[in-house]
Amino acid sequence: MRLHGNLLTEAGWLLGELRCEDGCIVAIDGEPADPARNEAPYLLPGFIDLHVHGGGGADVMEGAAAVARMAALHARHGTTALLATTVPAPDAELTALLGDLGRLCAEPVRDRARVLGIHLEGPYVSPQQLGALPDALRAATLAEVDRYRALAPLRVITLAPEVAGHAGLIGELAQRGIRVQLGHSRASYEEAVAALAQGAAGFTHVYNAMSGLHHREPGMVGAALAHAEFGELIPDLIHVHPGAMRVALRAIPRLYCVTDAVAFAGLPDGEYRMGEAAAHKCLGAIRLADGRLAGSALTMDVALRNLVQLGLTLQDAAHRVSRYPADYLGLTEHGRLAPGAVADVVTLDRALQVRAVHVAGHALNAAA
């Protein structure tokens, strides 16, 4: 396979050709170029979404078949790899679900985004910062997490560090290769900083469902802005004000984007059911009857365009939807166009609309 255009490589923009064999990039040929000075399409690393609950009418909690449908929907919008993100549920339900998803993670992919593993968003969070998550909470234990790890690759766990027993658990989880994220939490600034020192690696949807910033009580938001190397942000321009987005982008060196998309992403506006609750989708926002935001309808191509609209260069914006999430998980073969990397490539036109998506070198129908 050969692809031509403005290639976003580790050396910067090249106008030239990318060659792939057996699902990997084998060579890049081209000359340094300013993409603003030519009309060739943009070729970017495939987008990586580390926090996504659903899309196209499918919900992660429904099992592997639904996750495959969700991954196909998001692939059409440029996402080539993702973490299937759960919500709080009883142990028996999560056990059955993770056994099902573990098999899906091991399957080769051609027609959808690959599922890199699981993001367990709860049940280890604060009842005071549930947001729209179901109230099926409990404190984490190593025994339970180890059982889950045996069923599916747990890449990320969101937890509230102030919950009794969690502070002493963070280091153990980090030693197991799990990225511990702080979120859905009322932790103080001091508790959050202590959790980072114990091995926590990031923050779940910075600003949302966490103790806020006050100049005498900096809260978890203050800890993230002052100390984080990585953190995730929902850039739908609804969850976070553009001004607050700018603050986080300046403060957190490798802030990356997630969709936090739910099943209604990709569906028309209207009334839907979210578990036992009614939800309304309108103008990109999904809200419960009481007005609370309930996840998003975002896709990663829209996230990229929103960042550029905010004033980021295309190169910087692309890093925040591909390279930085890959770096966060330690996946050096993802999130970049380089020899030896997987051939996950998104082709955009001059208006930054998706025109083609390749997963492991296989072309998908990218019409959104």
Automatic annotation (TrEMBL):
Instruction: Spell out the Gene3D superfamilies in the cross-references.
Output: Metal-dependent hydrolases, Urease, subunit C, domain 1
Family matches, as InterPro entries: Amidohydro-rel, GlcNAc_6-P_deAcase, Metal-dep_hydrolase_composite, Metal_Hydrolase
Q: Where is the Amidohydrolase-related domain?
A: 42-361
Q: Which UniProt keywords apply?
A: Carbohydrate metabolism, Hydrolase, Metal-binding
Which CDD domains does the UniProt record give?
NagA
Task: List each coiled-coil range.
Answer: none
Statement: the UniProt record of this protein carries the keyword Metal-binding? yes
> Which Pfam families does the record cross-reference, listed alphabetically?
Amidohydro_1
Q: Does the keyword Hydrolase apply?
A: yes
Q: What family classification does the UniProt entry report for this protein?
A: Belongs to the metallo-dependent hydrolases superfamily. NagA family.
Protein name listed in UniProt: N-acetylglucosamine-6-phosphate deacetylase
Organism listed in the record:
Chitiniphilus purpureus
